[in-house]
Structure formats: structure tokens, C-alpha cells
Amino acid sequence: MLQRRRHGRRCHKLAKACAQPVLSNYLDACASLDIGNMENTPLISVDLELTGMDKGHNEIISMGWTLIDRGRIQLGSNRYMLINAERSVGSSAVIHELLDSEVAQGRSLETGLEELFDAARGRVWVFHHAGLDISFLRKACESWAGLIPGFIVLDTMRIEYRMRRRREMPIRQGDLQLGQIRNSYGLPRYTAHNALIDALATAELMLAIASRLEPDGILELNSHLKFF
Amino acid sequence: MQDVSLASEFLHTVPPFNSLEWDELRTLASKLEAVYYPRGKSIFSSSSGAGLAVIRKGAVRLVDAESRFLDKRSEGGLFGHGIYFHGELKDYGAEAEEDCLIWHLAEAEFAKLRERNPLLSEYFSSHLKTRLSAAAQVQHSFTQMRDLQRRQPVTIDCNASIREAAKLMSDKNVSSVLVMRGPDLVGIVTDKDLRVRVLAADLESDTAIERVMTKEPTTLSADAGADAALLLMMRENYHHLPIVEGGKPLGLVTAGDILRSQSEHPLRLVRDIHKKKSVDELVVMSRRLPSLFERMVTLGRDVEQIGRMVTHITDAFTVRLLQFAEIEHGRPPMPYAWIAFGSQAREEQTARSDQDNGIILERKASDEEAEYFSKLAQFVCTGLDRLGYVYCPGEVMARNARWRVSLARWKRHFDNWIDEPDPKSVMHSSIFFDMRCVHGEAHLVEELLEYATTRARENRIFRRFMAANVLHHRPPLGFFRRFVQEDDGSHSEGLNLKHRGIVPITDLVRMRALEAGITEPNTFRRIELAVKAGMMNENDASSLRDALILINRIRLGYQAEQMSAGQDPGNFVPADELSPLMRRNLKAAFMLVVEAQNALALRYQVH
To answer: What is the predicted ipTM?
Structure first.
């Protein structure tokens, strides 16, 4: 709870200092976010596609997200956008099947972030392996708005990891990959990958994990949050 | 990639959504909510107001109020809407049989979707219709008094004399009259009252009718059900009861009226057939078939069931005729089997069918025995013709000596077709592979079928001819406004739904059945068995099944329409009578058939 309060105060302060209205509103909402259980807490599941793992050199080339309200994924809220990269896509193009020319048709990182943080206002973020994506978002915000915003996050990888540890299940290499975990919950296999598919896949996994952690009721979220 | 294309792409593989335009699919997808249910979790306990649910992954058990199993649905399956379980529409609950990802569409959005799309509305409306009739069945035992009442009530003022009442009754040829005071029903007078209370009591004929009537008669409300009415009449020993709505008499109903309405059930009809004592009586009964058929279609019974029921009735008529024939000509001199071919064998008859039948004798008949079976066959074929099952134009009937032979001779018939196939004989013989025992020694039919199927299966050249024959009937390519587009680029003004739609599918499936050594004649069961035998994959199976249901639904609907307009039902539909919706459905079905035909052509290298 202490962590939550400190995080709230920081967001509140940042909101006042922030010159970007959308981000400022997001921070305001983040500061006073009422977090309860899966059904009464709105979530946003996000995935970013990157040109690489290094936030110093690599960039965001696309973003995908979907909203979860009342514990239900709102398929109509699915959003996918390409981001104009400043450097060449390079070797990861093979993975993402995105060519430079396609990337160039995307929107600027700033307008992309604007839309993302507008959608994320009043919501808890859901990522699979949050650290990487958050580090890129923080860096992007720093150059866009001159500050590093706070994030309240449910990380499906981390929650699953802690649950398996607690239940003393063996964890082998690769077990915590999105596709692997989804398999164990009987979720459909997606052959294609892009930011939206992965965001949706993460959202579905979040629902599945919640139902396993709390088979007969509704999962309380507070003990599973991570604050950035 | 579009934002909701992920969802719409999956929906695109799910009937009936696969026939929606992409724009509509996207709109639908955007309204969906995805929910995860771990195994064993309840999805809903009552289907009322549950909207529509699409199984994205996993499997779902549908259960009744006592948690008894009703049905199982798997990936791509739908539930939440009104579902007919074994002939009954029930409220049901749903629970996850495996871990499930379910896409929910809220009830209000589901209603809007149906409103926007006549196709979907039709797809789900067969359920809605059954929902209506099933609801009526629960509350009003299906037939309400309002529906029964056809005759205007005969009424008389309470101040009229007995003589006037008697005269009115004899003029109108009725056995009872309702007595009114102003707009109110105050009594009823029957023939029996006139006998007992007037003549036997020596009453003057100018006495007011009021004095002899039964006061405040028992009445039936217009929405009372047939069961309730029958019970009341039996208990109180009434023969007539007035039907009232809002205090006003609508008319009279007799026990006979109610019983007749109940006898419209096809299975009831089958029972009645066996009670009839003469061909003439059967002929009278057969006149009820058109209205029965019409009702089955408009009540939205599924086409497989209709085919089965109509065939059931044909079988019953045939068996009854054979019994009559055996009474008239004596016991058969040897065991035999009466067999049906074609649509009767497949249990896929519709409004009106030709007769296709034959006889298998246990052994070669002596002249005397042959004479007996000739008479028997003549009797039955003539009888069937009188009942509306007209003579087969190709003379494939038991009255034709060629199709009234011993089992050994039947085998030689098949040998000839199979060993020396030519296009004509193959086309001719394909009808004989759809064979079913209607009466007599079923083992004769089984042995013949087993023999024929095995021989056909082993002979690749024959099968190749069969394959070529299957490709003989091709569905049309598509539609113009007033024309049907043909293969050779020409146009026709209409479409023979049987030859261009049904026959290609039954031919294809028969081919598969032969390849798999399946002797079952019914197309739906052949498909099922072919899948089990590994001869057909689930996807092709459901495509053919769907196409058959779709084309047949349009065909039966059209035939029912023709019949209600007093025309003879046929298979030829003028192009301009096909609604855009039907065209779209037919086009989709034809595409599935053509795909399957092409696959067959490739496998046998024929075209």
C-alpha cells in the first residue's frame, strides 16, 4: 500500500508538471486510480513491436492494444498502428514481416503515444514481460513530453512465474513464453504475430490466469500489481 | 491489418456468419466480448437473455435445469440462442467442458444483427419459429381452440320458439345452436335436448327456447389447448363446446374437430394408416399429405427430419398396401423383400415423389409363384399411384418383371453394370445403389447391398465411370437478375433445384459411400459414416451437409408455397422467384458442391 501511495503522489506531481494534456490527464487518473478486482477495474492490454531489445538504439515500430472492461475483452476496442521509425528496421524485419516502406506509412511516435495514453487513462496496464515494453515507453515519453510517467501494471509473465513458484511447479526454459503459457490454459494458438495479436493474446491470458488464481470468485488485483 | 480483422477472420469460418459481407463481419466483431471459462465453470444457467455465444476455443456442455446433458458444442459452435433439443425447445444452461474462450454478443446486439441481416434472421428464425410453437405446446398443448374453429357459430335469440330453433338447426345442418340474449351467450340447445326435453316431455313447439336450453353452458376459452378441451369433454361427456373470446361466442368445437387437429402429427398419421381397411380409405388419407407437408415446412422442422417423416409415411402406405395385397391374393409362396430405391430409400422424400421400387425373391420363382408376385406388385404399384406416388417414368417398379427377380438374378444385374460399365448403364444403375428394405426379408436386401457395394468398390474402372457420372450434374455458376448462368455461357430462366442442387450432392456422397463400402442409403448418415471411416474430413463433410440442408430448405420452402397456392409442387424455380438472399445462399452452396466435384474429378482424372 505504501508503494501505491508513493506512486500516486509521484503521478500527481508529474501530472501538474506535464505540458502534454493527454499525458497529464492520464497521470491524474493514474494517481487516483481505484483498483479492486478483475470485474470492476478497467484494464488495457498492450504490446509493442520493436526493432530490437536495446532501448538506446532500437525503436517502437508498431503498437497494439485492447481494452478489458468488467472482466471481458472488448474486441471492438482492438487497435493497431504502425509507427514511423527513424532508423532502418534492420534485421528484425524478418520477425515482424514489416518492410521499411510499410513502417514509413505509419504515424509519428508522438501521435501514437497520444492515442495510447488517451486509451490507457484510468486503466491498469497488462503486459506479458512488462519490463521491456515499459522501458521503451518511458524513453519515448521522455523525448515526447520531457518526463517519465508512472505505470500500474499486471505482468502476466510475472504473475504466472510467481504462481508456479508458489505451487512449486518446475519452470523450464521457454515455459514462460506467451505461447507456451497460453497452451497450458487451452487458449488458441496464433500463428501470426504482430502487436495487436500479442496484445489480445496477453489479454486472453490475463483472464485465464485470473480464473485459475480465483476459481470460484473474482480475482482481487492489488497483490499482483507492479508499479513503474 | 485492420483492428478487428482477427475476430472477423475467425467468424468468417463459422456458419452462418461465413455468408456475411466483410463490413458486416467487422461490425459484428466489434460488438463481441471475449471471456475465459476454465473447465467446469458455468457460463450461464439459463439461456433466456443470454444473447449469442461463439466458441472461439474449447468445448461447451449444454444442460437442462436438472443439469442433465443436452448437447455438446465445440470450436466454432454457437449457443445462447433458442435451440431445439430432440424435438423440443428448452431453456438450457451452459458450462465449460474444457477450458474455453467464448465470444459473447449481448442479447440486444444479437437482435440488431438479425434485424440488419435477413440471412441471419432466417438462420436463427427456424429456431424462433420452433420457439413459438414449442411455447404454444407447453401452454396450450400446441393447438388452440382459436385455430380449430372454422365454422361460424349458429345462434338464436332466447325469445325464439323451439320450432324456430329446430328449423334453424335443420336449415344450417347443425346439431346444436347457441342461445343469445343480446350479445351474451346464455345457453345451448342440442338435438338431444330437443328429443329429451321437448318431444319426450310433450312440450309445445311454440314454447320459448329459453325453457329447454342448457343454461350457462360450459365454454372453452379461445386460447384453451386441445388437451384441456379433450379432457373436459371426456370427463363431462360433452360432444360440443362453445368457444368464447371476451364473452362472445366464436363458434362450436366438437371432439372430432380436436381429434382431427391432433392427427395432423406425421407419426399419428402413420399409426392411422395401419388402421385403415381399404385402399379407398388410404386414398382419402393421402389427401392430408399436402397440408401436413406444408405445416412441417412452415413450422421450421429441419429438412432432414422432414425427409424422414415424409418417407415414413410412404413406407407406411406401402406396407399397408402389401398387407391388403396379401389378403387379396393369399400368403406369399416364398420369402421376399419389397425394396425402395432412390429418395424413398434415402429417406429424403419431399412433397411429391415418383415411386421407385422392386422385389427381391429368395429364389427363382416357378411360373405360378411368378404370377403371384406379378399380381402383388401390380396391386401395390397401382395403389401407390392412386395415393399420389405416380408411376416411375423409367419403369423402375416392382410391376416391371425385370425388377421383380431372385436375389441371384439381382446380383447378376449388378454384375452386368459393374463389369461392363458404359456411361448410360452407370447413370441408370446409380439409383439402385440407394436401396432399402421396406417390407419383408431385410436380410435379402442386406446381402444384395453388401454384394453390390463390395463389387463396385473393388472395380476401379466402374468407379471411374461412377465418378464421371457424378460430374454429369453440375450446379449453375451463378445468377443474373432474371436468369441462371449455365456452364456453357448460356442463360436459363430458372433452376431445377433437384437436378442442379440435390442430385449433385447425393451423387457425390453415394460415390464416397461406395468407396468406403458403406451400405447405408441416407445421405446425412452416409456423410457421418464416411467421416468415421476416414474417407471424408470433417470440413468437407460439414460443407456437403450444409449445402444439402441449404438447398433443400429453399426447395421445400418453395414447394410448400406452391402447394398453399394450390399448385403442384415442383423442383423448377423461375429465376425471378429467387430472392437475393436465396441466391446468395444457393451460390455459396453451389460453390461447395463444385469444389467437391473438382476434387473428385482430380482423384479419378475425369472431367
So the answer is: 0.88
